[in-house]
TrEMBL record:
Keywords of the record: Hydrolase
Keyword Hydrolase: yes
GO CC entries: cytosol
One GO BP: DNA repair
EC code: 3.6.1.1
Name of the molecule in the record: Pyrophosphatase PpaX
MF term (GO), any: inorganic diphosphate phosphatase activity
Native source organism of the sequence: Brevibacillus laterosporus LMG 15441
Stored SUPFAM superfamilies: HAD-like (SSF56784)
UniProt keyword annotation of Hydrolase present: yes
Pfam families: HAD_2
């Protein structure tokens, strides 16, 4: 870790204790539009996925069910599916609940310590820009970020390497000096594709659904920060 000078953080489930809120937003909204299409467990398994990828999964599942069960009600048919209406309802739900999210313990203090030590800090998220910036402002950590890359800033979200590559380009850094910190398989896959090392923050305990292996694992933010600060001192020979 002592060669890392740039830290890229996922937002939901990594800095913010917002996992259940995001899952609720996706599940309740899809239930309104296509009742029974996904279980809540299936939505949980997809946590961290870019919205466009989820919408494609919805349409693929509707197509599959339409072929297998042509007698299904109209709401399960592609001709009835309205992704624009779904997105509108999803954003409405998220905006209504977006101000209720909170930082995980020690995140603000840890980010301040990392910033003081000279690390470049950025958020790389599959969340939309308006929602992400609102979260960061409410949490009072937006001013600590050197840049914020959201789903609105790229063509493809994570697990594509594009969001990480965009952040590195903005910050003028290279993969060898960059660390991606997240809580989902999408963060790990994006990091691998971009050629950067990855950290899995296991706030919710070890997740057996994540098959990808990160370079490092930590159970709390303080453990991560302590290790980064120690590595920074060792790297500078202090």
């Amino acid at each position: 870790m002592n060669t890392c000078s740039t830290l890229l953080f996922d937002l939901d489930g990594t800095l913010l204790d917002s996992r259940e809120g995001v899952i609720d937003a996706v599940y309740y909204t899809i239930e309104e539009h296509c009742p029974g299409l996904f279980t809540r467990g299936e939505i949980t398994d997809r946590f961290g996925e870019a919205l466009e990828e989820f919408l494609r999964a919805v349409e693929a599942k509707i197509n599959e069910q339409q072929v297998q069960k042509p007698e299904l009600p109209d709401q399960f048919k592609v001709s009835h599916w309205d992704r624009t209406a779904y997105c509108k309802d999803y954003f409405t739900y998220m905006k209504r609940h977006n101000q209720q999210v909170q930082l995980f313990p020690f995140v603000r203090e840890g980010m301040e310590a990392l910033k003081k030590r000279g690390f470049q800090l950025a958020v790389v998220t599959n969340k939309q820009r308006e929602l992400a910036l609102q979260n960061l402002e409410i949490a009072a950590i937006l001013h600590l970020m050197d840049t914020v890359v959201t789903l609105d800033d790229v063509v493809l979200g994570k697990p594509s390497p594009e969001p990480i590559q965009k952040a590195m380009a903005i910050l003028g850094t290279v993969p060898e000096a960059t660390l991606m910190i997240g809580d989902s398989r999408y963060d790990l896959l994006s990091a691998r594709a971009a050629g950067v090392r990855s950290v899995l923050l296991e706030w919710y305990g070890a997740d057996q659904r994540i098959q990808e292996e990160p370079h490092y694992r930590f159970q709390t933010f303080q453990m991560l920060v302590d290790e980064l600060l120690l590595a920074s001192v060792q790297g500078k020979g202090e």
